[in-house]
Amino acid sequence: MGRPLIGTVYLLHFNAPFGHARHYTGWSADLSLRLAEHAAGRGARLTEVVAAAGITWTLARTWPNKTRSDERRIKNQGGAARRCPLCGTRPRIAQPDPIIALPQWIEVVENGVYSLAADCESCRKRRGIFEFDLAQAERRVCFACQDGVAA
Description:
Blueprint: E1 7-18, E2 21-28, H1 31-39, H2 45-52, E3 57-66, H3 68-77, H4 98-101, E4 106-110, E5 113-119, E6 126-128, H5 143-147
């Protein structure tokens, strides 16, 4: 058995819905040729009936260097609108963890292990992040001081 063919998975956005369909996901080793077939109404059955209904489409997104298996995986995931930039989808930007983003935490690396620490406002000792009540964002007092048993 040979290697799978490499091509491009693509997403077409219909400029008007056709029934429930607003997108078509396909794969091609020659994307330009395949898009020309879709434009001429000779592509997949869905794009044929969309063209016959007078609905136009726009190439919304491509995934280069993919196989037909990748196309099947993307189709099986459903929700093409979630991957369509023309539907207003924008990649999520990772938000920093608010605990780590607080400037009073100190990055500590000991024996190749990364952790966070802070100085207790009561006993003034440097303690690891898990020795504080993280719900108490306004003050950094370790559990030992809260319990009255600071060592």
